[in-house]
Design a protein that fits this description.
The chain is an alpha/beta fold. The protein is 31% helix and 23% strand. The strands form three sheets. Strands 10, 11, 12, 13, 14, 15, 16, 17, 18, 19 and 20 form an eleven-stranded mixed sheet that branches. Strands 5-4-3-2-1-9-8-7-6 form a nine-stranded parallel sheet. Strands 21, 22, 23, 24, 25 and 26 form a six-stranded antiparallel sheet that branches. The model has no long low-confidence stretch (mean pLDDT 96).
Length: 649
């Protein structure tokens, strides 16, 4: 397991490099990421390369036993290149070509950009291929935009559509182009979606196209690096819950996923936890953190400084969810540039007196001891939640704003499962569900015959499937289905839905079978049971005759339908009922605490993380050893503010 930092030696004078390397080694840093945006220093002029400074810094770091990840510098094309080929700059939705500046200022389909990207990558890969200190590569930085609306992209889009649909007749039909006279009679007529109101089918295909073009550019880099640098890993820094790219596709050819974790503060703890699980789910294996927040961050605003202990807490939270390395952004706060109010492990003054540096030293010492024990320990989960980019995009493709909060709908279930101390896997709808006791699918709009079969096979074999509202309402082209809802899954759920409503600010009551009242929110599918058992009923106005939550036996399993958003206690009680056999029994912990488990060679490591800035009490019901203090604990014990424990037993 590695502890590392993102380092930009080109931001500091040469004399400082030795001091930095010594301070890094003292704190337990074993890995440094370099050259992320350094194109203008690696190729200051067209075909005029200078790797001497990078060679020197790598050699200095080597003297302190620090390994290196190099980045391909393509997230920041230099000014000379843009000046030579201004067509590389992306065009905005309103038709304006962007100027040079900031970063990511390139069109993802531009052939000139492919040429210059390949050239600098080839040079770097050949130069460092025999350097054993360079262990791997990060491709580009945080793929994801801006989307480009240039003529070149328009032509690529038309080609992409031609490959997909074959004929204009197919395309016109799939997009429903009879509506508002949108029929195309030549491929060249098809525009990019630059107007405000556009067809949801068109919008969905443009999102798929943008994702595919990004994957194509990313794969070009991966293949180049792997061809020239066998033995060195290739990864990319993903962005957690970022939704503009199909991360399953993007991650396919990388050796592993790494990602940039900026949780901001503890109010976002469940979103950060969910993001870790989404990242682990992309390749179904442990991941790296390539940029970990070490204190205040900036862009539109400046967040709070982490109080002592909080950086350490977030670090162990990463390990708890399956991280194999944590690399902090960044080594030292920069005195200039756009991110000058963005903290580093060292502050602008460069002294070793910062809160983050002291904490890094502590983490370095701890991980030196426990890292080998927990390395490659797996996360095993009895429950999975479907996280699907097609559904995210369909949810986004409505008048420029999401219809519902996709991660928010997932978090209703996720929070309740985490409160039981149970691990969660995030999966694709096409995955094999058979390893899971329960599979949950909020906002599963798109339903195909294959998916319906996958779900029905799972349930008839004994699985428990839970759908959120708006399930199976659309086809793959984002068109509403003509079937009675929930369409292809009507027999599975044993229900029909003929009416629904957007709840908005209305006060809606839901009453369960014991007479307990919950608040309904967001959306209401008004369910008519057709064989299903009613678990809760609407209890407000014209909704009252309808069911809100149902369960249906199907083969050896059960299918639940939750027709609306409900208060958290509802999910708490449902998850407790379905998953109680998997909940943590030997540790009692309050709401502020999250518990995760990793397993290895028959050993079980329980990560306990306190997200509160106050001490909390937990109860351990049998002898367990804390890996950090090496002490055995049993009974009531105090967990300090932002405190952590890794218990074995
Ligand atoms: Zn373009």
């Amino acid at each position: 397991m590695y502890l590392g930092v993102d380092y930009y030696p080109e931001h500091w004078e040469r004399e400082r490099w030795d001091v930095d390397a010594r301070l890094m080694e003292d704190a337990g840093v074993e890995l440094v990421r370099l050259a992320e945006f350094a194109w203008s220093r690696l190729e200051p002029e067209d075909e005029n390369y200078d790797f001497s400074w990078l060679d020197e810094v790598i050699s200095i770091l080597g003297g302190h036993n620090i390994k290196v990840i190099l980045c391909t510098p393509t997230a920041a094309p230099p000014a000379w290149l843009i000046n030579k080929h201004p067509d590389i700059l992306p065009v905005t939705r309103n038709g304006q070509r962007m100027s040079f500046g900031a970063r990511r200022h390139y069109c993802i389909t531009n052939r000139n950009y492919y040429y210059y990207s390949e050239r600098i990558i080839r040079k770097m890969a050949e130069h460092y291929k025999d350097n054993p200190q360079v262990i791997g590569w990060q491709v580009d930085n945080e793929f994801g935009g801006p989307k480009c609306y240039c003529e070149g992209c328009r032509k690529e889009f038309q080609l992409w559509l031609k490959r997909k649909y074959g004929t204009l007749e197919n395309l016109n039909k799939s997009w429903g182009n009879a509506f508002w006279s949108h029929d195309y009679t030549a491929w060249e007529q098809i525009p990019l979606p630059v107007v405000y109101y556009h067809n949801p089918s068109f919008d969905l295909d443009f999102r798929r196209f943008f994702s595919d073009m990004t994957v194509r550019y990313s794969n070009m880099q991966i293949r180049l690096l792997k061809g020239l640098n066998s033995g060195k890993f290739v990864t990319h820094n993903f962005m957690g819950l970022f939704s503009e790219l199909d991360y399953y596709d993007l991650s396919r050819e990388y050796d592993f996923v790494s990602w940039d974790n900026y949780p901001r503060d503890s109010s976002n703890r469940y979103r950060a936890a969910l993001a870790h699980d989404v990242m682990r789910g992309l390749k179904k294996k442990n991941f790296w953190i390539m940029e970990e927040q070490c204190s205040y961050i900036t862009r539109e605003d400046i967040t709070r400084t982490f109080p002592p202990g909080e950086m350490r807490l977030w670090t162990y939270h990463c390990y708890a969810h399956g991280a194999e390395a944590v690399v902090y952004f960044r080594w030292r706060a920069c005195n200039f540039g756009i991110e000058q109010f963005h903290s580093g492990i060292l502050q602008h003054d460069g002294t070793d007196n910062s809160i983050s540096y002291r904490e890094l030293k502590q983490i370095g010492k701890e991980m030196g001891k426990i890292g080998p024990e927990i390395e490659n320990a797996k996360i095993v989960s009895p429950v999975a939640i479907i996280y699907d980019y097609e559904n995210i995009w369909v949810n986004l493709a409505y008048q420029e704003k999401p219809m519902y909060d996709y991660p928010g709908e997932i978090l209703r279930f996720y929070r309740s499962i985490k409160r039981l101390g149970i691990n969660v896997d995030m999966i694709k709808s096409s995955d094999d569900f058979s390893n899971y006791k329960v599979v949950i699918a909020p906002l599963l709009y798109v339903m195909t015959d294959e998916l319906a079969k996958n779900i029905k096979d799972y349930v008839s074999g004994g699985g428990i499937f839970i759908a959120g509202f708006r399930c199976a309402i659309k086809d793959e082209s984002s068109n509403m289905l003509k079937e009675v809802l929930p369409g292809k899954l009507r027999d599975l759920f044993g229900i029909s839905i003929y009416a629904w409503d957007n709840i908005r600010d209305m006060a809606v009551e839901i009453k369960d079978r014991d007479g307990k009242i919950y608040r309904g929110d967001t959306f209401a599918d008004l369910i008519t049971p057709e064989g299903a058992e009613v678990l809760a009923q609407y209890n407000s106005g014209w909704y009252t005759p309808y069911a809100a939550v149902t369960v249906n036996r199907y083969g050896k399993g059960k299918a639940y339908y939750t027709g609306c958003g409900l208060s958290q206690e509802f999910y708490d009680s449902l998850m407790k009922q379905l998953l109680s056999e998997y909940s943590i029994k030997d540790i009692v912990f309050p709401e502020e605490v999250e518990v995760n488990i990793r397993e290895k060679d028959g050993r079980r490591f329980v990560f306990i993380t306190n997200f509160s800035d106050k001490s909390v009490s937990i109860k351990i019901k049998r002898d367990m050893r804390d890996l950090i203090t090496d002490k055995y604990i049993n009974g009531e014990t105090e967990l300090s503010p932002f405190g952590i424990m890794i218990l074995e037993g």
